[in-house]
């Protein structure tokens, strides 16, 4: 019997997973992880780049002053948020510093993927240049009333705050217009799991996400 030549491993293609606040992105992402799919969370990457000892944190402290640091040397997110939301120029400075670093961090973690495809889960996938890193977009979608209800319950916040966050994110219509696939997540967790499994089997047949 002649041994077959080892086939070169194909590089995983990247699926972007996004959705508005309260849509159930994290629950959907976990279903993919349970199926053995490599996943990178943009929110985690945003936290990693400002950890103590990383250059970004020193630059932030130098620019905004020591008031943006906690006593243990970690970033005081609440203090920083207050400063940048008062001043659009400061927000632009911070985004200019962090977005390229976050993008690089995401790239490094995606490069480690061993699964047939990998996932970048990001609430701001379509609002930032992160969408350029993916070959296909999956939107987790729910009616706005459900988003508000879930988020108020989950974050113990009020409806006005949730509506303000919704305004800052891409509109539901825009997200849907840019989606390759959509899961309407207004049922129970078992249904969400079955929808993810259905798409997963489709994704395994794709080359380069198409």
UniProtKB/TrEMBL annotation:
It catalyses: 3'-dephospho-CoA + ATP = ADP + CoA + H(+). Pfam families: CoaE. SUPFAM superfamilies: P-loop containing nucleoside triphosphate hydrolases (SSF52540). It is found in: Cytoplasm. One of its GO terms (cellular component) is cytoplasm. ATP binds at residues 22-27. Catalyzes the phosphorylation of the 3'-hydroxyl group of dephosphocoenzyme A to form coenzyme A. This is Dephospho-CoA kinase. It comes from Pseudomonas abietaniphila. The lineage of its organism: Bacteria, Pseudomonadati, Pseudomonadota, Gammaproteobacteria, Pseudomonadales. The gene is coaE.
């Amino acid at each position: 019997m002649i041994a077959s030549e080892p086939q070169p491993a194909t590089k995983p293609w990247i699926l972007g997973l996004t959705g508005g606040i309260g849509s159930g992105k994290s629950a959907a992402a976990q279903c993919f992880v349970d199926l053995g799919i490599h996943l990178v969370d943009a929110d985690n990457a945003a936290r990693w780049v400002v950890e103590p000892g990383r250059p970004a944190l020193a630059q932030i402290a130098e620019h905004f002053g020591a008031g943006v640091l906690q006593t243990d040397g970690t970033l005081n997110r609440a203090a920083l948020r207050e400063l940048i939301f008062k001043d659009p120029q400061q927000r632009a400075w911070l985004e200019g510093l962090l977005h390229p670093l976050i993008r690089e961090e995401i790239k490094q973690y995606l490069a480690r993927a061993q699964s047939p495809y990998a996932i970048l889960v990001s609430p701001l996938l379509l609002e930032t240049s992160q969408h350029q890193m993916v070959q296909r977009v999956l939107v987790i979608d729910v009616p706005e009333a459900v988003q508000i209800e879930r988020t108020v319950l989950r974050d113990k916040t009020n409806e006005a705050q949730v509506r303000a966050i919704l305004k800052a994110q891409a509109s539901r219509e825009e997200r849907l217009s840019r989606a390759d696939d959509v899961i309407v997540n207004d049922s129970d967790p078992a249904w969400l799991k079955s929808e993810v499994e259905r798409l997963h089997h489709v994704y395994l047949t794709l080359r380069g996400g198409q």
